[in-house]
Amino acid sequence: MKHKHLTGLAVLFCIIFALFWAxxxxxxxxxxxxxxxxxxxxxxxxVRREVGKNFEKASAELNERIAAKKxxxxxxxxxxxxxxxxxxxxxxxxxxxxxxxxxxxxxxPLVADKVCSIPEMRDYMPYGVYYTYVYCNEENxxxxxxxxxxxxxxxxxxxxxxxxIANDSPETKPEADKK
Length: 179
Known about the structure:
Layout: H1 2-33, H2 42-68, E1 75-83, E2 87-94, H3 96-99, H4 104-117, H5 119-122, E3 130-136, E4 142-148, H6 150-168, H7 175-178
Helix pairs in contact: 4-6
């Protein structure tokens, strides 16, 4: 009789041990699936790979449209490239009348505002995606290179938020609004 109780306790102990072991394995597997700080998990890599494929397709379509375009302006998109990161590079040719007016101070805020305000572009940035805009003269000499990544958009969003707070403060409202 004692032998049956010991066998029953041993079986119960084994079952409890097996359940604890299975639970521990599950917890470890869930921890492995969480993104690793400073690294990339499989899901992160898969998203970046998918973004790269989407960029390749978009670049090919844009380059086809550029080749078929008949009208030429003072500033025209002349090509796109997909790079590591993944990244998308837009290459513009600046004609003589505008060549001397191209500066980072003038162009960067316009480009950053546009890129950061387009959800389809902004949504990719947490995955390390960035956009480069290259401006060349007619001799293909680079005049300006602008890179817009998530840090640029975050700074812009913070600055916009500060402006909105300042505009909503009682000190900046007209007298008629205060009453």
